[in-house]
């Protein structure tokens, strides 16, 4: 068993102050990461809906995603996860669209997807779709992909008060 040593004379009040600072800092990060997450979801929904249509039968076609032979399985896995989000969750917005219009537009669906799923979705996009999204942020495709993965991870760390 490994014991953590503290500086002699450290008080409980000092430890608690560090804890409170950490929690406050995480809350600031979390609040701003949610803004980034929602913005990214909106941009992805806008760009893909504009290009592929607003019905899930149109925008979730495997042909709309990476055609790299190495990504075939990943594309199918991600699309199946997304379809399960549509069919498995009784979310009021999806129920409204399905019952009134017979489909779920992407701008509604992205609200159900976690930041991690958005990361996976971005990773299977066609290169020109990645470029259209990355250009919105004045970034190259690879850099945006790295940022999405990192921000998704930090968002989860903040949300779950992890290390």
Please compute the radius of gyration using only Cα atoms: 20 Å
- How far apart the termini lie comes to 19 Å
Q: Which percent range describes the beta-strand content?
A: under 5%
**What structural class is derived from the secondary structure elements?**
mainly alpha
List the helices and strands in order.
HHHHHHHH
- Uncertain ranges: none
Mean pLDDT reading: 93
What's the story with the biggest beta sheet?
none
Could you estimate the helical fraction of the residues in percent?
Answer: over 70%
How many helical stretches?
A: 8
Total E-strand runs: 0
Specify the overall morphology.
elongated
What does this structure look like?
This protein is mostly helical and 163 residues long. It is built from eight helices and no strands. It has helices at residues 12-52, 56-59, 72-88, 92-101, 106-112, 115-123, 127-136, 141-159. Helix 1 crosses helix 7 (127-136). The two termini are 19 Å apart. The mean pLDDT is 93.
Keywords:
163 residues; 8 helices; elongated
How would you summarize the topology of this molecule?
Elements: H1 12-52, H2 56-59, H3 72-88, H4 92-101, H5 106-112, H6 115-123, H7 127-136, H8 141-159
Helix pairs in contact: 1-5, 1-7, 1-8, 6-8
Structure described in brief:
The chain has eight helices and no strands. It has helices at residues 12-52, 56-59, 72-88, 92-101, 106-112, 115-123, 127-136, 141-159. Helix 1 (12-52) packs antiparallel against helix 5, helix 1 crosses helix 7 (127-136) and helix 6 runs antiparallel to helix 8 (141-159).
